[in-house]
Specification:
The complex is a heterodimer of chains A (410) and B (316). Helices cover 38% and strands 20% of the residues of chain A. Chain A is α/β, with parallel strands linked by helices. Chain A has two domains: 215 residues, Rossmann fold; 135 residues, 3-Layer(aba) Sandwich (Rossmann fold), CATH 3.40.50. In chain A, the strands form four sheets. Chain A has a seven-stranded mixed β-sheet, with helices on both faces. In chain A, strands 12-14-13-16-17-18 form a six-stranded mixed β-sheet, with helices on both faces. In chain A, β16, α13 and β17 form a beta-alpha-beta unit. Chain A is globular and about 70 Å long. In chain B, α1 packs across α7 and α3 packs parallel to α5. Chain B contains eleven helices and eight strands. Chain B starts with 26 loop residues before the first helix and ends in a 10-residue tail after the last helix. Chain B has an eight-stranded mixed β-sheet with strand order 2-1-3-4-6-5-7-8, with helices on both faces. Chain B has a single domain, classed as Rossmann fold, CATH 3.40.50. Classes of the chains: A alpha/beta (410), B alpha/beta (316). β11 of chain A pairs parallel with β2 of chain B, so a sheet runs across the interface.
Chain lengths: 410, 316
């Protein structure tokens, strides 16, 4: 094995994110404090205060202004970063759609936290899952190391000339953001060379009769954020749909390039399977609880049971082709959602996954397990029981319900 | 002393193209046109959602011959702060030459300034960001069809302050909030009011504001043909009457000093301003008397700030 590049630092996930931003030649940072994201903005402020990075730091009065400031800066050609959680993301809501609609490559870390009411500071994915239709690319990481690696990759993906879309890097509140881990840090120069500096994509402007960088440079008279009604709006949205369809290959490409630099990778960059090959049952999950699930599955594998875990690294774009490929032939699938969708038949990950599997010749049994809402602990024993249930379904027992809420008092 | 500027001395450049879809007689169009004449081409304009925004950029056309961005309704100031921060950062990196002076101007309506954009505006002003914020104030939500805003004056009819048996137009029994005082309370170096009937004054103030580093605010009265129920050809005349009656005072604040830029030795009664507008048609003599008292009090306040009587009494 090649000697590890860089150094090892004891960092929690929030600090790992801040460190990645520090190394990624960011020009403008704007954010607003909210638990459990606050550590990110504190560390970044320290880096700016100590002159360790050249970025402008704009201390705004709300998350709404944080994203607005990043959008203004990104529109003017800067590489930008912001971070938030829960209510903060909810306050940004309308702007999430504007960011992707204006094709501004803002990178945002979302430290996942439950939404009010009741107010709660602990983890679930209801904040970012709710933003799934906003046109942002969404990563869900498993640990601090992946948070660090993904933020670096995010800038390259967001700014790719075919993409030009915002990226949300989601890390579980407290489980990742506040948990100290050994994180391998690449040397500054290696990261700087990897991400480079932002080069705005060119667009052809008809009334100028030429291609110009799609930024407000104070010289080229381009209008950004125009009004397009029923005669053009649909085409703009279609361009966004087409762009996000190209994201999967770019994520794989950037993931692969990063692998060559860091010797670290996560599946193919989109999905991260563990023991899925030849498995009878597979649990599908996103985020930090994948670690707990893998721990249980490992023991079950050792006892001779054919159990696998499929961790999705991206939810947007949803890697349906990749998922179908690895899950075809699996008889029973348990989908672990960390968000509720009141009134829906199961939670979003379950719905999208089941939909992706619908066209298989022999459809598997797919059951939804909703867990960890508001930071409720997911214990290994619970995971073990879920696996036992799934194995029963595999033996022909019909599920009493296809949507189960685990770990909740009734 | 140099010869005073006249409209003939203003630059002939037109950065707001003709063919925009603002109403005939729209004072916002006059205002924007003169702001851009003062700013020149090295400028980035930020607009919140407003009349001027939707009418000037109906895809696939744009009336803007300078870089321009619109993001949302309540955040023009924050977007402008971001643009300004990017210019700083890119200069530091050497991507924009240090000597290049790119101005950042946010131009928004009264809804996007007094109401929904107030918080972001406060943030930009208190941080000291290098942005000129201009509010063109047509005294209601005209873009959505004449609804009451925090800038709607006492007595004015709007579709949400209709004239009925109980309500008689806008009911707030005092002067609306004072945007200039609010800006000054944020310790800005420069704040001013301006009026489309006095384009040279407006031009001069924008020029001056752009020469000062830090946050600046200019508040411009913006007569609105459909919203005020006036004839297009009367828009400038009515804007002028606002000044001649003391309903509007052209003044500026620069580093602690107040100066009235359009002195009015003898004021006309407010009725001559109000009676030309359909939105005030229902006002009784008693209502007008109340408005006159509010204006008298405001004139006295401004005269005090300036330290002498620059706005005179109502001519009999």
């Amino acid at each position: 094995m090649r000697a590890l590049l860089g150094s090892v630092k004891a960092l929690n996930g929030a600090e790992a994110v801040a460190y990645a931003v520090k190394q990624s030649n960011v020009d403008v940072i704007s954010a607003y404090p909210i638990t459990p994201q606050t550590i990110i903005v504190e560390r970044l402020s320290e880096f700016v205060a100590n002159g360790e990075i050249h970025a402008e730091y704009v201390n705004v009065e709300s998350e709404h202004s944080a994203l607005s400031t990043c959008m203004g800066a990104a529109a003017a050609g800067a590489r930008t970063f912001t971070a938030t959680s829960s209510q903060g993301l909810a306050l940004m809501w309308e702007l999430l759609y504007v960011t992707s609609g204006l094709r501004l490559p803002v990178v945002m870390a979302v430290v996942n936290r439950a939404l009010s009411a009741p107010i709660n500071i602990h983890c679930d994915h209801s904040d970012s899952i709710g933003a799934r239709d906003s046109g942002w690319i969404q990563f869900y990481v498993e640990n601090s190391q992946e948070a660090y690696d993904t933020v670096i990759q995010a800038f390259k993906i967001a700014e790719h000339s075919d993409i030009q879309l915002p990226v949300m890097v989601n890390l579980d509140g407290f489980h990742i953001s506040h948990t100290l881990e050994n994180v391998n840090i690449l040397p500054d120069q290696v990261v700087s060379d990897f991400v480079g500096f932002r080069k705005p994509a060119n667009v052809r402007v008809e009334y100028l009769g030429r291609e110009v960088p799609a930024v407000l440079d104070g010289v080229t008279p381009i209008s950004l954020g125009i009004i397009a009604l029923s005669d053009y709006y649909y085409e703009f949205k279609m361009m966004l749909v087409d762009a996000i369809d190209k994201v999967k290959s770019v994520i794989k490409e950037v993931h692969n390039d990063y692998l060559k630099v860091s010797w670290r990778g996560y599946g193919d960059g989109l999905i991260d399977p563990y023991g899925v090959d030849g498995a009878d049952i597979v649990l599908v999950i996103m985020g930090s609880a994948a670690g707990t699930v893998k721990y249980v599955v490992k023991k079950l594998l050792e006892s001779g049971l054919r159990v696998g875990v499929l961790r999705l690294r991206t939810f947007r774009p949803f890697p349906y082709e990749e998922v179908v490929k690895v899950l075809s032939g699996v008889k029973v699938i348990g989908v672990m959602d960390r968000a509720t969708s009141p009134g829906a038949y199961g939670a979003p990950l379950f719905n999208e996954l089941r939909s992706a599997l619908y066209d298989l010749d022999s459809r598997p049994t797919v059951v939804n397990f909703i867990y960890g809402i508001g930071g409720r602990d997911l214990e290994p024993l619970t995971v073990k029981r879920i696996c036992e249930k799934l194995l029963e379904f595999g033996r022909g027992v019909k599920p009493a319900s296809y949507v189960e809420y685990v770990g909740v008092r009734r | 002393m140099s010869k005073p500027l006249t409209v003939w001395d203003l630059p002939k450049d037109e950065f707001l193209a003709p063919g925009h879809r603002m109403c005939q007689g729209c004072a916002a169009a006059i205002t924007i046109r003169h702001i851009l004449k003062a700013a020149g081409k090295d400028v980035i304009v930020v607009m919140p959602t407003c009349c001027g925004e939707i009418t000037s950029t109906v895809y696939p056309q744009t009336a803007w011959r300078v870089p321009w961005i619109h993001v949302a309704f309540e955040n023009a100031a924050a977007v402008a702060s971001g643009v300004s921060a990017a210019i700083e950062a890119l200069k530091r990196k050497g991507e924009i030459p240090e000597e290049k002076d790119i101005k950042v101007i946010a131009i928004g309506g009264d809804g996007g300034t007094f109401d929904i954009g107030f918080q972001a505006l406060s943030g930009t002003l208190e941080r000291g960001d290098n942005v000129l914020y201009v509010c063109y104030d047509n005294e209601a939500y005209m873009n959505t069809g004449i609804q009451r805003s925090g800038a709607t004056p006492l007595g004015a009819w709007t579709t949400t302050t209709p004239v009925g048996k109980v309500w008689r137009g806008e009911w707030r029994p005092k002067k609306r909030k004072d945007l200039i005082a609010i800006a000054i309370a944020h310790n800005v170096p420069y704040a001013a009011t301006a009026n489309p009937a006095f384009p040279v004054d407006l031009y001069t103030k924008v020029k001056k504001a752009l020469s000062i580093k830090g946050p600046k605010l200019i508040h411009v009265l913006s007569t609105c043909v459909p919203g005020w129920r006036i004839e297009p050809e009367k828009a400038v005349e009515i804007a002028k009457l606002a000044v001649l009656t003391g309903m509007w005072i052209n003044y500026e604040y620069e580093n602690g000093v107040y100066r009235v830029t359009t002195p009015v030795p003898k004021r006309k009664p407010v009725s001559v301003y109000l009676r030309l507008q359909g939105r005030f048609r229902h006002l009784t003599d008693e209502d007008i008397k109340k408005i006159q008292e509010l204006v008298d009090a405001d004139v006295e306040r401004i005269n005090k700030l300036v330290g002498k009587q620059v706005i005179g009494p109502v001519e009999s």
